[in-house]
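Structure ticket #2291
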Amino acid sequence: MYKRQTLYLVRHGRAGKRDDGDPLDTQRHLDNKGRRQAIWLADRLIDQPIDAVWSSPLPRCNQTVEPLAVTAGLDVELFDGLAEGTDIDTSWAVIAQGLEHNGDVVMCSHGDVIPDLVRRAQGRGMIVPGRAGFTKGSLWTFTVDDGRIVRGDWEAPPPKSALPG
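Resolution: structure written out below.
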């Protein structure tokens, strides 16, 4: 039976300045712009038939997809395989779970994980017909035909002046 679905891969919204010297840096929360990016994401995807919302366990990711999950009446499920610093095989296993899922899935991850996932998908035949990027708050839309990612479209969040809120 032919199956068509969409996977959405989101880079978390802005969360202040990174400080690798701070042992609590992984616990950074979204800043004001990041919260507005999260609202934009919810507005952008609310009319899509999303069946699941998955996130890295780090607060900035969870907070990025939480407005969408609340609006859609879904829980945010946490996946260690989407966390910052995760190796490609582990994070790809989460993508593979998404491909097995019986609906559209939103996944939120980090700037070191997402480029690897996009490259692997391209290596497996995904075409990217337009611009590509990995800015905070951005969205990759993976079109899936019969369990295979065939197309990836990237969308940057609007500039700060055009964000909701």
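Closing remark: The longest strand covers residues 4-11.
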